[in-house]
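Researcher: We're reviewing a set of sequences before deciding which ones to prioritize for further study. For each one, I'd like a predicted 3D structure that I can look through quickly. This is Ketoreductase domain-containing protein. If possible, include the structure in token form so it fits the rest of the review sheet.
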Amino acid sequence: MAPQDRVSQVSSHLNYPRGLLAGQVAIITGAGQGIGAEAARLFANEGAKVVIADLDANRAESVAKSINDASPGRAISVAGDVQDHEYLKRVVAKAAEFGNGKIHIIVNNAGFTWDGVIHKLTDKQWDTIIAVHATAPFKLVQAAAPYFRVKDGEPRVIINISSTSGIHGNAGQANYAVGKSGMVGLTKTIAKEWGPAFGVRANTIAFGHILTRLTAAKEAGAFITTPEGEKISLGIPQKQLAVKEGDAAEQYTDIPLRRPGSATEAATSILGVVSPLFSYVNGQTIMVTGGRNI
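Model: Here's the predicted structure for Ketoreductase domain-containing protein, in token form for your review sheet.
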């Protein structure tokens, strides 16, 4: 389908009775909870088939079940570690099988933080976070290349999830900042390599303060267990989150909206950028921050 015809199709079907993503197949990593899970549900509601990729098999299957209970046959779960390149190939193979030989969307969302100041950051912390946030997204896109470098007139979109840490840096997060910054360069390269001949769109979404386990109080006890069995604490120390009693807005004075975003709001932004409503937006870094850092 020619670009002008696609635009005409968009403008003449503003109600999208079958959904914004009808007939499309999406891989979403880190979709067992949080933003990824919300995105998976939204995608399915808009007519997509969704592959729930997550390290936690139980959580992944739970999300897939919740989707299939509402819309049978819309989701499958494929559990594994994104640091395992063979796993990423398996995700692609399962997605292609689920989509009858086609994949339309990749959302590179999986990730976590393992913080430390520069002079104390260990090689393990550095290597793990770079592997999860930079190498894994590249390897997944590379494995899916045969399904994106095609000329069938159907939309193909890749979304790489970044963070304000990757745009502005953040004390204690050198590893995370480098990994998330790398997503921006990967996105622009995909747009330049696969856009001209195949019409693939690639965009980065950089989140600010979104309410997830990564931004909750560390004292709440959230953690991720690596494949080697190491438990990594997640969240922000309570003393950094402390606010005046009875005046929570004091915590968010650097956010014009004076509040953090919800996982659903974050996921909705992903849906918007993936959708045909953003059909001429390509190679961009879209800040979803409530106005922080403007």
